Amino acid sequence: MEELVKEIADLKALVNRLLLRIEELEAENADLRRQLGQNSSNSHKPPSSEGYSKKPLIKAALPKSSGKKPGGQSGHPGKTLQLVEYPDEIHTHSATHCGSCGLALEGEGQVVARRQVFDLPPTAMWVSEHQLVAHRCQCGCEQTGRFPANVVAPVQYGARIHAQSIVLNVDYRLPFAKISQLWADLTGYAYNPATLISAQTKLYEQLNPIETQIKEQLKAGPVCHFDETGLRVDGGLKWLHLASNEQYTYFFVHDKRGQEALLSQESIFPDCVNWTIHDCWASYFTVGKGRHSLCGAHLLRELQALIEQGCQWAKAMHDYLMAAYEATRHGPIGLNQQALWRMNYQQICQQADLEEHPAITFFKPNGSLGKPKRTKGRNLLQRLIRHEEAVLAFAFESGVPFTNNQAERDLRTAKVKQKISNCFRRVGGANAYARIASFISTIRKMNRNIMNNIENVLMGNFEWAT
Prior knowledge:
14 helices; alpha/beta
């Protein structure tokens, strides 16, 4: 009997270990299925990663239908070519003989129709010469003029070709060698890549006070968006951090992604006293004076991944956030309704707490029990509970957007550049790119002329040009 009792106890212990192992394998299997099913609609993966497997019609995360017909709307400012009063060149086309009698036509005819062709002028390098002129005064002293401050060599390139080359590299993402070849094809002069690097360095230094102005404007703004992405620099990984709103953009490069970068002297996050829009990266909640609002699009993607695994509470929370988004299309939810919305939110979280497994215990390779691991759903639920105010800020506060789309759009250009050029060879080049890209993005948002403004900065004029 004692042997049987001992055997039964051993079998029970074995069954318990096997049950734990089965639970562990089921969780691992579910996690692997989740990873295989990741795409741009249920994770942070970009649409470009889906390749040809991407569905041709994907329902947008947020409804954008306005009820208007496609195409240009009545009253919108069109950009169709219009006849100009004074063309640069005029070609006349007249008949030389009468089609009826054959006599030669004489005298000046009358213009009966006009057609204009808009095209680029023949491309050639424009060379301007600066000459010093000496005058002898009546007193016998000879006085000589001075070259402009930006004319420093017997032969040199001007600010305009520097500005255009910098824009081609930073904004249009052409590599240095391609820009040199482009100018050689257009003008016959191969603009040396070393010259472009020198021009970028000069612009980087002269943009310093303008960058300070941009940072101050972002700090004082009612809303500021934050995000970050990895950059390949000098054979390693660095992080490109972004702060932006509808008018200003600020990039900076740092070795770290988290708290150390956000507390660095380059960062403006600790000094933003109003609304900061970002994702659930934990470092954002540990520093700063501003109020937090979480990106709803990130939450919807995480909820969608859980829905695809059959999670009921995720479907309820997804529907709740979409309903709140629809209710705030024309303004925040009124004070008299906010309590009801909060109660519904908390009820869904309570439902989720009952559905989600609290933790799963894993076995280590040596057979001992490992640290309990929470599921993806449990992790998301804890964030939704902990950051309830940040999740619902868009619904209850005026001017707070539902998503962090502003930052993602501003950051997308850097990812495209990295795909084309692969990496930055030196940290200095990455820093120059960040500052110049900040300036270009800002003046684009202001609907100002990019070339004129960069030329002005290169020539020492910091005023914004229209």
